[in-house]
Design a protein that fits this description.
This protein is an alpha+beta fold and about 180 residues long. About 30% of the residues lie in helices and about 30% in strands. It contains five helices and six strands; from the N terminus they run αβααβββββαα. Strands 1, 2, 3, 4, 5 and 6 form a six-stranded antiparallel beta sheet that branches.
Amino acid sequence: MYPFLRLATVTLSERRKPALGLFETHHLSLRCLPVDLDGFLEMNNGRILTLYDIGRFALSIRVGLWDVLKRERWGLVVAGSTVRYRARITGFQRFEMRTRLLGWDERFFYIEQGMWRGETCCNHALLRTGVTQRGRLAPVAEVARAMGVPEISPALPAWVAAWAEADGQRPWPPMQGPASAP
């Protein structure tokens, strides 16, 4: 089940905090709850992605995007992601989620997220996200204008640009059935 209570708690808390700059890192302290665990008593990988949703909501509130979304009646969507899992988060452990906007291209916004226990990065995600309007992606330049930020992004980090380029070569729609040899 989606953690609506956690989302509501974070949303109310974040609205009382000062604004962040567009490229500042958002920090959110959390604890691994029993509902987050899998059969191995560690945080479930699906729950990690769900908690990352909450981190992006929190970031959107603090950078001012949330108010623009409400005003324009826009939504948020994830268009792609890649995650590395490196260290377990077990029941009742505290961890910090760090979320930051890396930049954008002509279609998507790129966000980096990680869950940290002290100096240990437990998992790390790169997400390609978008803003939706009437069921379609809103033009990135229009979103930037609505937020009062430059329409042109600073250069994306090389590893992000390489990921976006590689993912752009992936066939869509995917092949049905077993993949054939090249």
